[in-house]
Amino acid sequence: MNATALLIGLGPLLGWGLYPTIASKIGGRPVNQILGSTLGTLIFALVFAAVNGISLPTGMDLVFSILSGIGWATAQIITFQSFTMVGSSRAMPITTAFQLLGASLWGVLALGNWPGTSAKLLGGLALILIILGAWMTVWTEEKTQEKASILKKAVILLAVGEIGYWAYSAAPQATSIDGMHAFLPQAIGMLLVAVVYSAFLSVKGKEKSAFAEAVSYKHIFSGFFFAFAALTYLISAQPNMNGLATGFILSQTSVVLATLTGIWFLGQRKTKKEMTITIIGLVLILAAATMTVML
């Protein structure tokens, strides 16, 4: 692995690692966050496509790429909702664990990954480690019925959101184009969901329209971080760079930065014991992710 490939492979560490913390720091409601983030992603994608002379795909390639973006944006709205319930430092390890579980199971059931008994046993062990690691990151010393109830609701929300993240990853597999050509239509699908969601809430009239709130447009900045991460991951996963397996492992390091920055910069405090167990849980998640892509 050369230095250039490594630096590109670590792009998701910065982009996806800082994205939830920046979005939470800017504030606003989930609708503000998704509207600004997807707008920022589309701006980034348009500039990238223009600089590289990439045109929109056609036919079903376009449809599936847009569906991929719709899946991500739908899931991200749910993830933003969970941030308001338990904070990004607890929500991010859980959603990462669900994404790893979903990707692994999809690979086994649909793509024929983990051939042989030994691979399936090791893969099963990795999935158990992912679940254990996620549980450790949300463990608390001070247990109350109210906190347990909120956490349970957040976990259920994030589990439902995995359907959208699965679509984000799986839909492009039905196309004949590479990730860089799918990037712009994905961004279009993301913004489409954000606009429809924002318009729906505006029509309900219970809250101020997200289109008229300045905080929505401040989130364009956070959208740049997501877009940077998504693009560098697509490049990193190419065979002449890090390849899909190594690129995937490097991208998962983002959960560490997302969790720790949420604790350090957003006031999502943990006791010394909780912090120790959280770090062990993060290590387990990363170790299990490495196992799944090496099988």
Automatic annotation (TrEMBL):
InterPro entries per the UniProt record, alphabetical: Sugar_transport (IPR010651)
Record localization: Cell membrane
Pfam families to which the protein is assigned, alphabetical: Sugar_transport
Transmembrane domains' residue ranges: 6-22, 34-56, 62-80, 92-112, 118-138, 180-203, 215-235, 247-266, 275-294
Domain of life per record: Bacteria
Membrane topology category: Multi-pass membrane protein
Keyword Kinase carried by entry: no
Keywords associated with the record: Membrane, Sugar transport, Transmembrane, Transmembrane helix, Transport
Similarity comment: family membership: Belongs to the GRP transporter (TC 2.A.7.5) family.
Protein name: GRP family sugar transporter
Species this protein is from: Enterococcus xiangfangensis
